[in-house]
Amino acid sequence: MDPYEPPPDPEERLIEIALDSGTSRTRSILWFCGVVYILIGILSGPLMSLPLTGDPNMSASVQVAILVGFSAVSCVAGVGMGVVNLVAAWGLGQGGKWAWFVAVGLGALYLPSGCLPFGAVMLYSLVNEKTRRLFLG
Angle 129-136/116-126 helices, nearest 10 degrees? Predict the structure, then answer.
């Protein structure tokens, strides 16, 4: 029997996935990045608009409109990306093939950014032979 062959029983497969170091490492990164993205999404709009409050040439209604606009855009983008990370982490724990693909995509997305170390660790952890066979068979 191939040592990397996933067990045929679904419950045993979930136990193997829970014990796999690559999966747990990737899930930890996804949980961390998800929480950070949500915090960035919630806080960045008001913080980006804060310097505008000191401008005496700008009316209060324009300042409020910019604050609301920046906050809405950053909240949708940040919280949306955070939710994708959290859902992928949850799906990996459930043994979802789709979650493996989403996590690989997120790892590839992180590689050319400031999150390069996270992306490299995620891709290394997910595409190794054992972890890949657990999810793809």
Answer: 70
